[in-house]
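Subject: Protein record for review, amino acid sequence with backbone structure tokens
Why sent: The fold of this protein is of interest and is recorded here as tokens.
Enclosed: The protein record, placed directly beneath this head.
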Amino acid sequence: MKTTLYKYLSYIYPIGIDVTSSVYNSVIEIQWQNGVKVLNSDKANFSYGSLHQVFQQGFKHYNLPNADVQSILILGFGGGSVYSILRNELRYKGKITGVELDDKIIKAAHQHFNIPSNNKQFTLINTNALTFVSNNKSAYDLIVVDVFNDLLIPKSFLTTKFLQQLNELLTSKGKILYNVISQKNTLIKAIEDNEMNYKTTSINYYGVTNQIIKINHTKNKTT
């Protein structure tokens, strides 16, 4: 009963239901907004709000995941927006690996957003995405990059080295979907320095323009 009431009232004003903090985020808040439970930081939506809509449009625009995609890596798992789109909306049944630095956000994902425990088709790892990419040897058909500190991507994720490392984790037909806001030019320069093939689409929600950049696997790229 309370959940239903919150859901309807949230069309009038946001209703906060839980708030905490962590080493990495001064505010981690669960709210009902416009009938949907969302995860927010102090300045940005982490999951299920505008970010959810951005990736809905991004997957649709690039027709992903398609039949070639059997394994997906999500860097910056957050509360699980991308996971939810893949499993619940696109009915993707392949293997998903998620990487999230903040253990408090992982706890919120399980507690508030029905993200399951690890199983044969899903693994959620609590670690730094840079560390994971540097040490991992698995190959993926699709890598989704959504690594933000509020509205900015840490500079280490915008380098030619990081893109080279991602490229090495792709299968021969693999692709990267990279979500970026104000640092588009920095990312594109790194992509072009690596001579990687890419396409970009702009998605605007609530006055913020995101760029979802699709990067194709590049042969014979080494670090």
